[in-house]
């Protein structure tokens, strides 16, 4: 995903190409990334850039419009991903294609198993997982009401946090949009932190435990053999 953001998916490039329609491009991308099995779109950086561009006047839109539009895109994408997973069921795991990679499903399934319903909130901030965890929830037959409740909470936190972060940083530091390339790299780096944490945790869980006391083979050889003595005394 995020490597592609350096090219034509870079927010500054999208702003130049689409101008005032930037928000609606972001809405489409967020919808796709949040459920249509295409995890390589720059959702994090687009949310951040939307807030930043509104703050510096490049987007003449109120936050009161941008935030609900992006929220609806996120929750709509989740609903679509859930229905895909629910319809496909366990057969989904037999696929291993260019974008529907078995490893992505396995990682999301493990994340879902570890965190339960909270995975729909925490997974928002983990690239790839936020795309597939909703599909896993559908394949696992989580109740729709339960799914939509937790998914809405996650969407609200994700969209609000990143968009307002971009907005208030843009207001506090005018001209920050001139460094949007570095900001995108920073957002990408932050979004990869949860991936690194999960990888380290998974590696630690799979490593053999070394804190168990090891028996000393010399302990048995150093003990006197009392059986002969007992036999001799009789």
Automatic annotation (TrEMBL):
VTT domain location: 41-167
Keyword set includes Membrane: yes
Protein's membrane topology: Multi-pass membrane protein
Family matches, as InterPro entries: DedA-like, VTT_dom
Domain of life: Bacteria
Stretches for region Disordered: 204-234
Name this protein carries in UniProt: DedA family protein
Organism annotation: Terrabacter terrigena
Biological classification of the source: Bacteria, Bacillati, Actinomycetota, Actinomycetes, Micrococcales
